[in-house]
């Protein structure tokens, strides 16, 4: 097998997809990424089959506390799913293409829809800890500096050179999430807004939070956007949720300090409701086959 510099070549992704498909009967149409403290989502899968990242060819390993580092196959409400229990981040030091490699592998396995979750800081002053924000759009801050998972030669077998991002977060799925959230009585804490990704791992300064807020971001975090870019490039429709685990500090008199334990704790508090929301969305969503890239 030829190894690319970036580690996400068609040959490498195909080898990984083939290895997985020869080790599981599940042919997932839905992919789920569990954010920090939200690994419990994977426990919703029936007849789970688990692969440690360290056993999967070409997969990086997850190094973050609160991320299990395994891929779980199974069914959710009868739909074949693959769930990443733990994801990869820029701040772990991986090349950006390694962070997004699972999206391409999932595409080759037949995934049509991605549901991504993350923990995020709330910049919007109306947001409270424990709110769940449906992503309407994103700001790819590392992208402004040329850090984009699609940098480098384009492989047309995955998608086009210049993919559109104005429809990154599927309108129908967002609508469905609002409907389901309303039925479940979640309206009080369900929001919709713009997510801004930064490289991390240091949390934002007060001046940075003020700047991001004034630029139109409602929440800030260190993940998801890279995966969405690569998934959209490959024609996978995307839906993403941020669990607001802390309020971003915007005021020099505040004594609040962002910390990772708070992030995990908020995940535990909302875990069950998030699981219910995601499960019901998966149950109700229509089959989607947007094969625009092959
Ligand atoms: N900033 C960046 N990432 C985060 C935060 C935050 O405040 N909370 C959870 N992830």
UniProtKB/TrEMBL annotation:
Protein family membership: Belongs to the PNP/MTAP phosphorylase family.
Protein name per the record: Purine nucleoside phosphorylase
UniProt keywords, alphabetically: Glycosyltransferase, Purine salvage, Transferase
Family annotation (InterPro entries): Nucleoside_phosphorylase_d, Nucleoside_phosphorylase_sf, Pur_Nuc_Pase_Ino/Guo-sp, Purine_phosphorylase, Purine_phosphorylase-2_CS
Broadest EC class assigned to this enzyme: transferase
Domain annotation Nucleoside phosphorylase: ranges: 29-282
Top-level taxon: Eukaryota
Entry-linked Gene3D superfamilies: Nucleoside phosphorylase domain (3.40.50.1580)
Positions that bind a purine D-ribonucleoside: 204, 246
UniProt-annotated binding residues for phosphate: 36, 67, 87-89, 119, 223
Functional pathway: Purine metabolism; purine nucleoside salvage
CDD domains in UniProt: PNP-EcPNPII_like
Annotated function: Catalyzes the phosphorolytic breakdown of the N-glycosidic bond in the beta-(deoxy)ribonucleoside molecules, with the formation of the corresponding free purine bases and pentose-1-phosphate. Preferentially acts on 6-oxopurine nucleosides including inosine and guanosine. The purine nucleoside phosphorylases catalyze the phosphorolytic breakdown of the N-glycosidic bond in the beta-(deoxy)ribonucleoside molecules, with the formation of the corresponding free purine bases and pentose-1-phosphate.
Annotated catalysed reactions: guanosine + phosphate = alpha-D-ribose 1-phosphate + guanine; 2'-deoxyinosine + phosphate = 2-deoxy-alpha-D-ribose 1-phosphate + hypoxanthine; 2'-deoxyguanosine + phosphate = 2-deoxy-alpha-D-ribose 1-phosphate + guanine; inosine + phosphate = alpha-D-ribose 1-phosphate + hypoxanthine
Glycosyltransferase is among the record's keywords: yes
Pfam families xrefs: PNP_UDP_1
UniProt GO BP: purine ribonucleoside salvage
Keyword Glycosyltransferase: yes
EC number: 2.4.2.1
GO CC annotations, alphabetized: cytoplasm
Oligomer and partners: Homotrimer.
GO MF annotation, one: purine-nucleoside phosphorylase activity
